[in-house]
Every structure is written in C-alpha cells, then in structure tokens.
From TrEMBL:
This is LacI family transcriptional regulator. It comes from the Bacteria. It holds the Pfam family Peripla_BP_3. Keywords: DNA-binding, Transcription, Transcription regulation. GO terms for molecular function: DNA-binding transcription factor activity; transcription cis-regulatory region binding. The keyword DNA-binding applies. Residues 23-77 form the HTH lacI-type domain. The keyword Transcription regulation applies.
Length: 351
C-alpha cells in the first residue's frame, strides 16, 4: 500500500509517495528542497542553518515520520558511550536516589549510562549544568528544576537533546514532565488528620518558589477551608528544605502558646526533622508526611506514599522515545499517591 502525505504550505515538492520502507534523510532533503548536508545539519541542531530553512526541514521530517539514528549520530560526533544526565536539587535526598535507580534500570539495556549532578537548589548552578550537558550533546537530559519558570530553556530544545522534567513540572515551556499528584496527596493527608479530630494542624513546606510546595500547600489549605477551620494559615511555615531547618520550624510551632495538635510535613526530609522535634518536645502530636523515607514503616510514621523509581523509569523511557525525534507535542504525566496509615497520623488531639 502506498501512502501519500501532503506537506505544509511552503514545501517545494508538494507530495511524496512513501513505500513500506522507512523515510530517509535523502527523502527529507528532497522534499524540503535542500542538500543532504543541509538537511542533516538542520535536524541535528547544528549552526549555520537559516531559521526558515531549519523550520522547513523539521516540518518535513515530522510530516513523513523521519527518525534519525541517534546512536549513529552520537558515533559520528565521536561519542562512543551514550549518556543520559540527571540534574537533581539535592543529592542527599533519598527520593532522588530512587528516581535515579528507575532511570538507570530503564537505560542500561540500551547501552546507555547515567550521570548525576546536583544544583543544590541554586538556580544559577542549574542553568550552568543544563548548558554544559546540552553542549556535550548527551543522549538525554532529565531535570528536577529549582527554577520557577523555564522559558529560557526553549533555545536548547532545537539542539537535538531530549529534555524531560521530573518531580517539578516545566513552567512556561512545552516539555514532557513526570510529576506526582501533589495537590491530591496533601489534601488527603490533611483531611485524614481532620477526620481524627484535629483542627489545629501545622504545615511545614519547602521553598515557596517550587511548584511541588505550591501544590501541596494548596491541597492542605483546601482541606482546612472545606472543613470550616478558621484561620487555616495560622500554623503554616515555609522554607523548611532540609532536616535541620524542619526541626527548627517544628520546634517553633510546638513551643507556641497555642501549638498545633498535628503537623503535615511537605516532604521526606521535612518529615524527618519534624519527627525529631515532635519526639523531643511534644510526642503526642500527630504527624503525616509527604513521601516515604527509610524506616518510616518501622517508626510508625503515616505518609503520603508513591513510587519514585517508577517515575524515573517512565521519564527515562520518554527520553529514549524522544531521542532523534522532534516532538510534535508534550505531556505532563501525573503519578498517583496513596495514604499509608502507620500510627502517627491516627493520634487524637490531646491539647
């Protein structure tokens, strides 16, 4: 069977009969009215190609379903060991270790290696890492971004390296993202505390600029407002990014003249710091944390659980699918969360 695909307006050749064989670079060049070398440069994101020419070539490639041989392209550039790079916010957070595990399991069978770097939640460090990895033409780039907007990364998307966001979605940029159902998880955790009689519920959140923190805080706030609890922000605290700052923030809440009877912690590191402070200053305080952490089951900590390894695997799978292909659309994939009752979130209010 022969399929005839009509090119967008502006094409010099109109239509092209595509047989059962896969589309070739030569076909793209002919349809776009350029030389084979120019077509190759345009598709691989190389310099010295006019914008109009590049757009025409890429449009033709999309229309006929052309895929570059990513491995051959890498070898041509002298890269013999394909690498996928993962940029995280904090290498000490075990959540990202589980994400990296999922990525590595997915790419290993394809002969691709994983490199990991940390921005330490510093925007400029992230920008520098992204720029360096793009310049190295890695096979794919996975980013847990600390920026609040990503429009500046659009310039990198035409350079042939798949860019996928993890945990925190792309904002102001058309790019694939794999995130948790942050709003629903925080809402469920807060509503669970309310169902056990709590109305004085503290919230411990991460940096306010992070989309994960924003959505989790919105879920907490919605549950409090829906329950008719006055002044729901009275016990809210932000920028508790690590264990130490979470400990300090929890201590401050628990030593108030009218302290909360329960705490919702916005991530695993915050939960650990909160648990330490609760144990020391007010062990009767109920606690629900977002994310599991090591020994959370043995310590009896109720959490909003999910599967970071699966997040990493799915994101890596998307990078592999995008390699050598100019994406026609992007998706935000939302992974589910689940409440795990282990005791700390089921304590009744005692103050």
């Amino acid at each position: 069977m022969v399929e005839s695909k009509v090119l967008p307006s502006g094409s010099e050749s109109g239509t092209y009969d595509i047989e059962q064989t896969a589309p070739t670079l030569a076909m793209v060049a002919q349809l776009a009215g350029v030389s084979l070398k120019t077509a190759s440069r345009a598709i691989n994101g190389e310099k010295h190609v006019a914008k109009e020419t590049r757009e025409r070539v890429l449009s033709v490639a999309e229309n006929v379903g052309f895929r570059i041989n990513a491995m051959a392209s890498l070898l041509k550039r002298g890269v013999t060991t394909p690498v996928v790079s993962l940029i995280t916010g904090d290498l000490s957070n075990p959540f990202y270790s589980m994400v990296a595990k999922g990525v590595e399991h997915e790419i290993r069978s394809h002969g691709i290696r994983l490199t990991i770097a940390s921005s330490d939640e510093e925007p400029e460090a992230e920008r520098e890492l992204v720029r360096d990895f793009i310049d190295q033409r890695v096979y794919g780039l996975l980013v847990v971004s600390t920026l609040d907007s990503h429009g500046e990364y659009e310039a990198y998307q035409n350079r042939g390296v798949p860019l996928v966001f993890l945990d925190r979605p792309a904002v102001g940029l058309a790019a694939d993202s794999f995130v948790l159902d942050n709003y629903a998880g925080a809402y469920e955790g807060t509503a669970h505390l309310i169902s056990h009689g709590h109305t004085k519920i503290g919230y411990l959140g991460d940096y306010p600029r992070l989309r994960t923190r924003q959505l989790r805080f919105e879920g907490y706030q919605a549950a409090m407002v829906e329950a008719g609890i006055p002044d729901p922000l009275r016990w809210a605290s932000n920028s508790a990014h690590d264990v130490d700052s979470a400990f300090a923030a929890t201590k401050a809440l628990l030593t108030l003249p009218e302290p909360p009877t329960a705490v919702f912690a916005g991530n695993n590191q915050i939960t650990i710091g909160a648990l330490q402070a609760i144990t020391q200053f007010a062990p009767e305080t109920a606690l629900v944390g977002f994310d599991d952490f090591a020994l959370s089951d043995l310590l009896g900590v109720t959490t909003i659980s999910h599967d970071p390894t699966e997040m990493g695997r799915l994101a890596a799978k998307r990078v592999l699918a995008r390699s050598g292909v100019r994406a026609q659309s992007c998706e935000e994939t939302v992974l589910p969360t689940a409440l795990r009752k282990r005791g700390s979130g089921e304590r009744p209010p005692v103050r």
